[in-house]
Design a protein that fits this description.
Length: about 475
């Protein structure tokens, strides 16, 4: 007899408890819509629970405990009651380790449900730091959920993210966990992954026995499940602006039917009143509210990170860094979080959406050849044809340079020419530049890395005091 199970996927919510702006796609280009937030997520979960009683699992791909000022200041604590309210059953992680893996273990205890990761070990051992999988009993079905944490944490994130831990790509471990689940009689095997959409597709071609892959990290808005080998795969956007719903019919031989919805959490979805009231009176949120809702200026353009090649949010950050340091060239990482802000009034909350950790502005010296090498490396880490060589995020954000590149070329041959306003950069010429975070510029590039004592949010406030923000040339990267 066929049986059914329903699954809600949330991924890459980046602590967006409240409704907020996010960039959407339209016939005229990007536009900003106010939507999302946990009260809308809860409304949809309650709707599915009423439609399909006793058969709903809620699974979270991670990037959950980081992305807002409140989340950073409370080291993730502010998220706990709201994740419990959603009834999440399990999660995996990436930015959630920003406060150390040990802190994530503390948050796991507070949540009361497992953080799953079969590819994270205690440093220097083969002893797993997190539970690799968990089996749920759902209406007579044994559902094995295997967790895969982001494989880039130890490669390009700040050292605190992997403190005391070792990370692998997870391919071997995932295969072993699938075999273990099948041997234990699992009727359904779900991979809950934060590797990224291209990486998960590559993994599914190598690891048989997975029925459904819930993918996270790369913020893909998948409207139709794809089938890779024997597994279906979905990813459901980001920023608590959308979610994924899957209802599976299982019979002899596995999945007989799959029904899927990609749900945009726009104003057509009501906000759960009880959760909304809880948010309005939350003492942890209230202690930051006046500070964050203080007006700090305005923008003549929508601020977003909707494109792989540029983001007007990043233009504001880079211009503020250049003003703060007096240097003509600035770099930051191609972060994907932050949502978007409609043009008009800006508050401090919007600035923390751009850089919730408020990093110190740093400076360094690089030759023209070192700049070119760094840009080549970044293009490869963003667009490598080998998925497991991709390091996450969009292309590096740059101000003060014009980079002409051929994306289709192999590594080492993409960057064609690089110019400053004064002319083409010289390979032996030394340039002093500003940057934020190790992701923006790893210290292996250049020399004389040092802090300035100035921080990103204050620098943006100083820039905005000059008047409404209007970016200059947003096309630092020009594909040719």
């Amino acid at each position: 007899m066929d049986k059914t199970i329903s699954i809600v996927q949330i991924n890459d919510t980046h602590a967006q408890l409240l409704e907020h702006g996010d960039a959407r796609y339209g016939p005229a280009g990007f536009y900003v819509e106010t939507l999302g937030g946990f009260p809308r997520i809860l409304s949809k979960i309650k709707e599915y629970q009423a439609l399909y009683p006793g058969e709903l699992l809620v699974l979270d791909n991670g990037d959950t405990f980081h992305g807002t000022h409140e989340a950073v200041q409370t080291r993730g604590q502010v998220m706990v009651p709201y994740l419990q309210a959603l009834g999440v059953h399990a999660m995996t992680f990436h930015w959630d380790a920003a406060y150390t893996p040990a802190r994530l273990r503390e948050l796991e205890q507070a949540l009361g449900y497992p953080v799953l990761a079969c590819n994270v070990y205690h440093r220097g051992t083969r002893r797993l730091m997190f539970k690799p999988q968990h089996t749920f009993e759902v209406k007579g079905l044994k559902v094995a959920v295997i967790g895969l944490a982001s494989n880039i944490i130890q490669k390009n994130m700040p050292a605190v993210f992997s403190q005391g831990a070792d990370f692998t790509d997870g391919i071997r471990e995932a295969a072993a966990q699938v075999r273990k689940a099948r041997k234990a009689g699992a009727d359904l095997v779900i991979l809950l992954s934060h590797l990224g959409y291209p990486q998960d597709i590559a993994l599914l071609t190598q690891v048989p026995g997975i029925d459904l892959c819930l993918s996270g990290h790369t913020h893909n808005r998948v409207r139709t499940p794809q089938k890779i080998g024997g597994a279906y795969i979905i990813q459901s956007g980001a920023m608590a602006s959308s979610l994924g719903f899957v209802r599976l019919t299982l019979g002899e031989g596995g999945i007989r039917h799959i029904a899927h919805e990609y749900v945009v959490l726009d104003k057509a979805v009501p906000q759960d009143r009880g959760l909304l009231k809880k948010l309005r009176h939350d003492p942890l949120l209230l202690q930051f509210r006046d500070y964050l809702d203080t007006p700090v200026g305005s923008s003549r353009v929508d601020l977003h990170r909707a494109s792989s090649f540029y983001g007007t949010m990043d233009c504001l950050l880079l211009d503020a860094m250049r003003l703060a340091t007096g240097l003509p060239i600035a770099f930051s990482n191609g972060w994907r979080y932050g949502g978007a802000v409609k043009k008009g009034r800006l508050t401090r909350r919007h600035l923390y959406a751009i850089v919730p950790m408020d990093p110190e502005i740093r400076t360094a010296r690089l030759t023209g050849a070192q700049i070119t090498r760094m840009l080549e490396d970044n293009l490869e880490s963003t667009f490598s044809t080998r998925p497991f060589d991709q390091m996450g995020g969009y292309i590096k954000r740059v101000a003060g340079l014009k980079v002409y590149f051929k994306l289709e070329n192999p590594y080492g041959q993409r960057v064609q020419r690089v110019f400053t306003p004064a002319g083409e950069i010289g390979p032996d010429t030394l340039y002093e530049v500003a940057y934020v975070t190790r992701q923006g510029m790893p210290e292996r590039y250049g020399s004389h890395h040092q802090g300035t004592g100035r921080h990103a949010v204050a620098a943006m406030e100083v820039l905005l005091k000059r008047g409404p923000y209007q970016p200059g040339d947003v096309e630092a990267f020009v594909p040719v």
